[in-house]
Amino acid sequence: MAKSYNQKMKILYLMQAFLERTDEAHVLSMQEILALLNGHGIHAERKTIYDDIEALRVYGLDIIYRKEAPSGYYLASRNFELPELKLLVDVVQSSKFITERKSAELIQKLEGLTSHYEAQQLQRQVFVANRIKTMNESIYYNVDKIHGAILADVKISFQYFEWTVEKQMHLKKSGQEYCISPWALTWAEENYYLIGYDEEADMVKHYRVDKMLSIELTEEKRVGKEHFADFNTANFAKKTFGMFGGEEQELRLEFENRFVGVVIDRFGKDAAIRKKDETHFAVRVKVVVSPQFFGWLSGLGTGAKIVTPKVVQQEYKQFLWELLKQYQEGEA
């Protein structure tokens, strides 16, 4: 490489050195900077280095000189602080929808946002109880395609599958393609879901993104905008238990006071909670009534109760009765 070209690269190598080799605990002395540049075939003098450092400061790099030992220059601040990167790494590690391979790739890229020394602190394993990573690598790109379709205001086509007892993919609708107008993506129950409008069925539906195959953007414009004028994805996920479909109804529920945290976690702080007596409280919430909702409620035992509407109360009793019958059949 020509010497003059090397000299033009000097400030870039200098910037790279500060990004990768310095932080509050690790500095570069002038001698180390000169030696580093010399390793790239660049001869530099102290005065030009001072000028380059000042140019990098003007550019926006927070380069500070520390007088106390060990003295030297270092990058004092970055776009992401180490605690923020640790948080992002933890999220990637614990996310069910990101495969092991993709998790490793993303974490490696996050490590590039700090010094080599601090990056070592990001190389840690986050253990989450019963964490099962998805096997579908395509979800990473499915999300990108869906966002692209929403931005382009077009429908998407895809195939949808379910797992068999033999752990094989089984295409629903005999492999026939779905054609949906995508309007939102939401994260619920540790999975990504597409929320869209099915024109043929004339209703809003949701699909697990990791179960979608062969997503393609069509040339047809999206429809169903009127259904999403006041649509709130957070509220949708909050009232849809296990993201299973059902009829949305307003329920009055009663709980023992010890479950107030559980109710707030599930329905949010805006839930209409009022005191019933010294040991119980009541709440009015909108819920998509489904077996998954009944399962959540039954998990709270005798500390939770459906008050109204009576028809849902009867459905819940039938649900519990069907469960009980499984253990009564054949008994003496």
Notes on the structure:
The protein contains twelve helices and twelve strands. The strands form three sheets. Strands 3, 4, 5, 6, 7 and 8 form a six-stranded antiparallel β-sheet that branches. The longest helix has 19 residues. Helix content is 38%, strand content 26%. Helix 5 packs antiparallel against helix 6. The chain is of the alpha+beta class and 332 residues long.
Spell out the blueprint of helices and strands.
Elements: H1 3-8, H2 10-21, H3 30-39, H4 46-59, E1 63-66, E2 72-75, H5 82-94, H6 100-111, H7 116-119, H8 139-152, E3 154-163, E4 169-171, E5 178-188, E6 191-198, E7 203-208, E8 212-221, H9 233-239, E9 247-256, H10 260-267, E10 272-275, E11 280-289, H11 291-298, E12 304-308, H12 310-328
Antiparallel strand pairs: 1-2, 3-4, 3-5, 3-8, 5-6, 6-7, 9-11, 9-12, 10-11
Helix pairs in contact: 5-6
Radius of gyration, whole Å:
29 Å
Please report which band the strand proportion falls in: under 5%, 5-15%, 15-25%, 25-35%, 35-45% or over 45%: 25-35%
The number of distinct β-strands equals 12
Helix content: 25-40%
